[in-house]
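Annex B. Sample input.
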Amino acid sequence: MTPTAVTVRRAEPGDFDEVARLTVEAYRADGQLEEDHGYGELLADVATRAAHSEVLVAVDGGGGPLLGSVAFVLPGTRYAELSKLGEAEFRMLAVDPAAQRRGVARALVRACVERATVLGCGSLVISTRDRNAAAFALYDTFGFVREPALDWVPVPGVNLLGLRLKLPTTTT
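Annex B, continued. Sample output.
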């Protein structure tokens, strides 16, 4: 049996509970909520995230179950951590543990790259835990490069490493 294609679309209010569930579950399964520091509550608050960013979801085929989500963020907005004028970033990338290894994260990152490109952003930035080898491998395939100037520590023991993808710019 061949898996169906993964489609990415903007989250709708009816998706928010499922996005909250799968995001918290994915972060917990990955060991990223061991010392929560309130981050689990932030991950579960999808309505607020959607009011201040573009929450994208990956679905199975044209309308199957939700498989993952990500927040696409512009600088100066509530969820912006790294981006500056002319850039975008994405945060809270999560794939339901039951849907991993199906290209869901890749489809969500690709959607963020495409969205940033359409908006004319010069770069797309992201930060990820220093111990998240799978994330680094994924981002490397897109051409993201480490940018130590973007590294930061939101709470003691959580070391986030910054990466940047330079995007093609068009001139008219």
